[in-house]
Amino acid sequence: MAGCGDDDFKNEARAPIREALTGVIQDDAVTVSPSKLGAGPVEITISNQTDAAHSITLVGDSVVERADPVAPGDTTTIQKTLEPGSYEVKAGSSKAVVKEIRPAVLRIGKERQNSNNDLLLP
Fold it and tell me: Which of 18, 29, 84, 108 is the most buried (most CB within 10 A)?
């Protein structure tokens, strides 16, 4: 029978949909929302609302992801697939500061559902 497909085809689950998180750097703290979600791909877009440029670092048990310094009023994005655990989103500065900027904490739970049944995905 022609056109019946290949016996070696594996119908493997696709990754969960990339979750969009938003964050802001302020003089006293970094905040990211939502702060609790399931494991899988994430895209964190962070806006710098301070008067100085800051580098952004995502730190977890087995992850250290750095973004280039973001200028005041500008944004940067970090894309990463996160495993269950706790992560911090830190803002650093090339200048010494009087008070450290408190990092945002992300709590990543069990893996999100795969995207096999979601339409119009790449």
Answer: 108
